[in-house]
Amino acid sequence: MKRTTLIAGLTAVSIGAAALSTGAFADEKGGKGRHNGPRFNFEEVDLNSDGKITAEEMQAHQAARFAAVDTNGDGKLSVEELSSHSEEGRMERAEKRLEKMMERMDTDADGALSAIEMAPKDADKMFERLDTDGDGAVSKEEMDTRKGGHGKKGGHGKKDKSSN
């Protein structure tokens, strides 16, 4: 039991350390680069804004990121501190996604989404695609046939070739 706890703790610390060391690479919007890797934020690391990054600036930036996670100031990162930092990041990203969704879907700009705004825009077309025999209803077999289209093989909206 102790060994499992130790391994889990070391794993969390190494993940957290990796997250901290790459934290300078997230862009100002918290986004990622084209290949789902972090994008370097030069301005965040260039502390004196001279257009150059020195080793000292990189070290100072990393130290500041470490200190931000080290909430009790003991110079070490506990699993709790790493977990809290990780959860804060997840919450911030989720909030940004929800804000974007609201901007995109809130057509009357009232700050809330109605059932009409939440409804799929192409629900009729989607139903027609599911109702492959045209009887006005979707059977379990028709639904199961289409499920392959949402998996790894076919992608969204495409038939799974293995089910033909």
Task: Provide keyphrases for this structure.
mainly alpha; 164 residues; elongated; disordered C terminus; 7 helices
Protein model, in words:
This protein has helices at residues 2-22, 42-45, 55-69, 79-105, 115-118, 123-130, 140-147. With 164 residues, the protein is mainly alpha-helical. Helix 1 crosses helix 4 (79-105). The longest helix is centred in the middle third of the chain and has 27 residues, at 79-105. The radius of gyration is 24 Å and the shape is elongated. 3% of the residues are buried. Mean pLDDT is 77; it is low at 10-37 and 151-164.
List the helices and strands and how they pair.
Elements: H1 2-22, H2 42-45, H3 55-69, H4 79-105, H5 115-118, H6 123-130, H7 140-147
Distance between the termini: 50 Å
Task: Evaluate the radius of gyration.
Answer: 24 Å
| Beta-strand residue fraction | under 5%
Structural class: mainly alpha
What series of H and E elements makes up the topology?
A: HHHHHHH
Relative helix content: 40-55%
Largest sheet: none
As residue ranges, the low-confidence spans are: 10-37, 151-164
Number of helices: 7
Overall average residue pLDDT = 77
What is the tally of beta strands? 0
> What is the general shape?
elongated
